[in-house]
Description:
By secondary structure, this protein is an alpha/beta fold.
Amino acid sequence: MIYADYNGSAPLHEDVKQFLLQRLQAGPFANPNTLHSLGAKVHSAMEKCRAVCAKTLGAKPEQIIFTSGASEGISTIFHHELTDRADKRNILVISSIEHSAVWKAAHDYAAHGFELKIISTKPDGVVDLVEYQDFMKNSGEKVALVSIMAANNETGVLQPFIEIGKIAKNFGAKYFSDTTQFIGKADFNFLESNMDYAVMSGHKVGALVGSGLIITKNPLGFKPLIFGGGQENGHRGGTQNYIGIETLAVALHAFHQNKSQLDNVKKARLNFEAKIQKAFPEIIIIAAESPRLAGTTLLSYPGIHGQGAQIELESQNIFVSTSSACSDNEPATSRMLLAMQVSEVVGRSVIRISFGINHADTNYELLYDGLVNAYNKLKKIQSF
Length: 384
């Protein structure tokens, strides 16, 4: 089996598997917020995990708030920054290629009084930094929050988040970057990022689903979205998913120890892209010239539906995804690709291939063979 949908959800990291086998046998299991000795042991282990996560992400332990994942983190950050504001900052800035968790949150706040500014995206998949800078020069003093992602989940295109954060800071606006796809697929240092907030989901890096975290530059006064018994220093109520948190620390530590392999992943991806384009000159690599995540390729064979290619690959035990949003079973070009001015015929034909840091070069070789078989078969069907 070739699993090439790491941007959707990474398989459990091997270190996480081994940890869980031992952890579930050895225990302990208790509420980390209780005062008895078992609870204290669980709490102590959780705090060690907080320190590990902070160290690998270039943050301080007190800046880490554990959550169920990035979607909760995004909603919490929006709630903290935008609910019951006392100042005159009433503008929210996002990009046209944000994940639906940011997109829908922003539109909800826009429906409740905030002015929403959507920054365009250039055809190369990078947000229009000139448009953003010009807008901030004119309206930056009224901007409450800038929310522009670090890496796009469909194209893998890396955004200039350090510069985006610097511009926001110049006008006193807070900057949140959705780093869900960036963390665990690229080297990240919160201290050097110019971000006020970042988020991640454990299942994107090989930890258990249902684990995640927020990084906040200033945890003092951070308002919870979920109320409870004062867990996470009052920033997020509810008993912590302590085993999920432990796997999060294991997975992040494993990435940190092996991040030098990212260059090898990138080389293997570029070789694959060149090889598949040589076999099928019609193929388009979306945002081919832009900086991208090491293991992400979004390619299109115009005229051959991406879902058809996906199904054909699955018949060969190869798993990829598409970026299509379906309505009444009719494939449609995604909002993100439309923002990049990708045509319908190209957009409906895309498949997304995404690997993690622990991929093998043979994965790309087998994927190439499978994709050649799939496209040749679909071309024959199409010709009838």
